[in-house]
Q: What sequence folds into this?
């Protein structure tokens, strides 16, 4: 399961609408790829289609799809949004991460 905070939900809805997408029927795709200072980095983008191998979750009214491989790394993660002095953007609070980099965009297990 991937959880979405209230603030992240509001930002997702706002950005999807700006991109001409409908948050009621389109998805937020969350994934993991190799790279970043800690070894793995997060991916987040909007998607119109779910693949057969994707896992589908809904949290706080947001439809989230995750490919099977990425799910192993981010199960239990909470997607949040920060608008603070340290930068603006989505933040992944991943209970599986043993180490994260200073920018919070990459992690290792």
A:
């Amino acid at each position: 399961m991937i959880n979405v905070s209230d603030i992240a939900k509001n930002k997702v809805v706002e950005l999807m609408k700006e991109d001409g997408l409908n948050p009621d029927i389109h998805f937020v795709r969350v994934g993991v790829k190799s790279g970043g200072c800690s070894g793995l980095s997060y991916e987040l983008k909007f998607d119109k289609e779910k693949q057969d191998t994707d896992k589908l979750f809904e949290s706080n009214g947001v439809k989230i799809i995750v490919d099977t491989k990425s799910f192993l790394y981010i199960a239990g993660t909470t997607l949040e949004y920060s608008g603070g002095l340290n930068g603006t953007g989505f933040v992944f609070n991943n209970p599986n991460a043993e180490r994260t980099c200073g920018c919070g965009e990459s992690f290792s297990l």
